[in-house]
Automatic annotation (TrEMBL):
PANTHER family: SUCCINATE DEHYDROGENASE 2 FLAVOPROTEIN SUBUNIT, SUCCINATE DEHYDROGENASE FLAVOPROTEIN SUBUNIT. Residues 37-470 form the FAD-dependent oxidoreductase 2 FAD-binding domain. Residues 532-666 form the Fumarate reductase/succinate dehydrogenase flavoprotein-like C-terminal domain. Its cofactor is FAD. InterPro entries: FAD-dep_OxRdtase_2_FAD-bd, FAD/NAD-bd_sf, Fum_R/Succ_DH_flav-like_C_sf, Fum_Rdtase/Succ_DH_flav-like_C, SdhA/FrdA/AprA, Succ_DH/Fum_Rdt_flav_su, Succ_DH/fumarate_Rdtase_cat_sf. This is Fumarate reductase/succinate dehydrogenase flavoprotein subunit. The lineage of its organism: Bacteria, Pseudomonadati, Bacteroidota, Flavobacteriia, Flavobacteriales.
């Protein structure tokens, strides 16, 4: 085991990033024109990085497995993006955003990176407004803000429930300008299947054209992984069904350490599972918790009647409802962080108070907000405040203005009108805080190989605050990587064009072809999804909201068993020389089946509870996460050693010089 060097700059926290930028080496414009960079993934992180690097003069090759960068999973983000502009005048600041992020992550993130993220957050909003992103505005014309979980200020900028889509359109427009200039070569429908190292440095990738099946070599002076997270390990999740971990896992197998893989976020407000044949789950934005109140019945008989359809939620009187988050966490109420809200929902449902057919759901109710907003609108319009029908209509109009598309989405999926009856929600897999280990420059342990956005581990610790994913992705792509990658490339300007006609590229391509042939030639009887569902069930049961030693050991054994069964009995129809989605799915699942074992091993080795990682053996007196700062105040970075279960642990000690580490409290 070694101790990792994060290359954190010296000096006061508030000056580290400025001093670092002032001290790094630069590449002059003429030399940038001779350097090639590969960016894998074109969501908010990868797309913003590709556009910015091309604007600076580098030659960029960008890869996405979708038919267009506009289809990246970033498009699904609903609620907003954080920034410390303090437009509400409610006490927000760069330090407050920094503090909330560290605390929200349960003191398991790197202090210097988080402060830098808070520092550049305001620039992101200015950049996006300049691109035409239609953020919501107040009556006076200023950009509006709302709150998200884990904070007591309003710092989240939003565009109704379509924030990710609107931000991605801004990124896409910036990319298109560079594509038109010839500075970005766009490879749609291409999937990265391996990283190529030459003399220990990342020098390119092997890709497969998903339409024709052609295997291609691509060379560059640096490679950037921006391929998102690995939450589809769980099969059912809020991720797009195509989201996968293959790019990051291939990088890991080539020497990039994987950090904190067990730090996986469970989101508290997803639409509950509806049946055994479901393929994904849909998120209801955390922004809904601004105005929605979460409850279950106080009486077990009422809960049973709701499950059996003998009562509907409006039959339950106000005094018979348990607004359990408001009861347990009065200071934050319904806006506690996601890990806290998720565990509280599971606890109520496990105790028998769940409200849907399966017993795995709670209510998110907007009745009181509709009444409050309706009365406010009636007063401002000089209308009759005693007219109940008028108040309800005005209140519903106000809610529709803030959350209309989310309510519409819920009604289409559930066939229930959320204006008239409370939404049903339940926790599910949503985001991964773990990822490839990177230093302060966002470089992995492989020289020339970078990871940005959700593909790296650096900013969120053991739990991500809502609306911070978009912030990190755009910060990395627009304002951090374009500086730091130049420091590395400044020593590469004499290298010249990197050739793909080398033994390293030949060997990597051969290995890719061999793996594809093995999948296509397998004479099994079970489709890919059969094994993915089995893996998902193992992960949710043993590696989900709650974990324990016995369950994690069982998970590791069961994952190995499913992996062996997969390679023995999977069937992949068709050929490799055509569009073959089953082949693509099989390759991605093969990587998930390896990553899953390391995930369970990491959770087993972390003998504490922190953030979203809840070990049943390590709870406080009131059931809260109980950290062990003496033993586990570190980043767990795993080095691949041939098999997932044999990975070697390396540690980066986390040092907090500006914040006192203490047990979190949202009461």
């Amino acid at each position: 085991m070694s101790v990792l060097d994060a290359k954190i700059p010296l000096g006061p926290l508030s000056e580290k990033w400025s001093n670092h930028k002032n001290g790094i080496d630069l590449v002059n414009p003429a030399n940038k024109r001779g350097l090639e960079i590969i960016v894998v993934g074109t969501g908010l992180a990868g797309g913003s990085a590709a556009a910015t690097l091309a604007e600076l003069g580098y030659n960029v090759s960008a890869f996405c497995f979708q038919d267009s960068p506009r289809r990246a999973h970033s498009v699904a983000a609903q609620g907003g993006i954080n920034a410390a502009k303090n437009y509400k005048g409610d006490g927000d600041s760069v330090y407050r955003l920094f503090y909330d992020t560290i605390k929200g992550g349960d003191y398991r993130s790197r202090e210097a990176n988080v402060y830098r993220l808070a520092e550049v957050s305001s620039n992101i909003i200015d950049q996006c407004v300049a691109q035409g992103v239609p953020f919501a505005r107040e009556y006076g014309g200023l950009l509006d803000n709302r709150s998200f979980g884990g904070v007591q200020v309003s710092r989240t900028f939003y565009a109704k429930g379509q924030t990710g889509q609107q931000l991605l359109l801004g990124v896409y427009s910036a990319m298109n300008r560079q594509i038109a200039r010839g500075k970005i070569r766009m490879f749609n429908r291409h999937e990265m299947l391996d990283v190529v190292l030459v003399n220990g440095k990342a020098r390119g990738i092997i890709s497969r054209n998903l339409v024709t099946g052609a295997i291609d070599r691509h060379a560059a002076h640096a490679v950037v992984i921006a391929s998102g997270g690995y939450g589809n390990l769980f099969y059912l999740s809020t991720y797009a069904m195509g989201s996968n971990a293959s790019a990051a896992w291939k990088a890991h197998k080539r020497g990039a350490f994987l950090a904190n893989p067990c730090f996986n976020q469970i989101h508290p407000t997803a639409i509950p599972v509806g049946g055994p044949n479901q393929s994904k789950l849909t998120l209801m934005s955390e922004s809904l918790r601004n105005d929605g109140r979460i409850w279950v019945p106080k009486d077990l008989e009422d809960a049973k009647a709701l499950r059996e359809g003998r009562k509907n939620p409006n039959d339950i009187a106000e005094e018979d409802r348990d607004y359990y988050l408001e009861r347990q966490y009065p200071a934050f109420g319904n806006l506690v962080p996601r890990d806290v809200a998720s565990r509280a929902a599971k606890e109520r449902c496990d105790a028998g108070y769940g409200v849907n057919v399966t017993g795995q759901a709670v209510y998110l109710d907007f009745a009181s907000s509709i009444e409050r907003m309706g009365k406010e609108r009636a007063r401002t319009k000089g209308l009759d405040g005693s007219d109940a029908a008028l108040i309800e209509r005005l209140g519903q109009e106000a809610i529709q203005g803030k959350y209309g598309n989310l309510f519409q989405m819920y009604e289409k999926i559930m066939d229930l009108n959320p204006y008239e009856t409370p939404m049903m929600i339940y926790p599910t897999t949503h985001y991964t805080m773990g990822g490839l280990w990177v230093d302060y420059n966002l470089m992995t342990t492989v020289p020339g190989l970078y990871a940005i956005g959700e593909a790296n581990f650096s900013d969120h610790g053991a739990n991500r605050l809502g609306a911070s994913a978009l912030m990190q992705g755009l910060a990395d792509g627009y304002f951090i990587l374009p500086y730091t990658i130049g420091d590395y490339l400044s020593k590469d300007i004499g290298t010249g064009k990197v050739s793909t006609d080398t033994s390293e590229f030949e060997k990597a391509e051969s290995q890719v072809r061999e793996r594809i042939s093995q999948l296509i030639g397998n004479q099994g009887s079970r489709p890919v999804d059969y094994f993915h569902k089995k893996l998902g069930a193992i992960m949710w049961q043993h590696c989900g909201i709650d974990r324990n030693e016995e369950g994690l050991k069982t998970a590791m054994e069961d994952i190995r068993s499913v992996r062996a069964e997969f390679w023995e009995d999977v069937i992949v129809p068709g050929t490799a020389e055509e569009f073959n989605e089953e082949l693509a799915k099989a390759g991605r699942l093969a990587d998930f089946l390896e990553l899953a074992e390391l995930y369970a091993k990491d959770a087993l080795c972390r003998e504490e509870s922190c953030g979203a990682h809840m070990r049943e053996e390590h709870r406080g007196p009131e059931g809260e996460a109980l950290r062990d700062d003496s033993e586990f105040a570190h980043v767990a970075a795993w080095e691949y050693k041939g098999r997932p279960g044999e990975a070697e642990l390396h540690k980066e000690k986390l040092v907090y010089e500006n914040i006192e580490m203490k047990q979190r409290s949202y009461k």
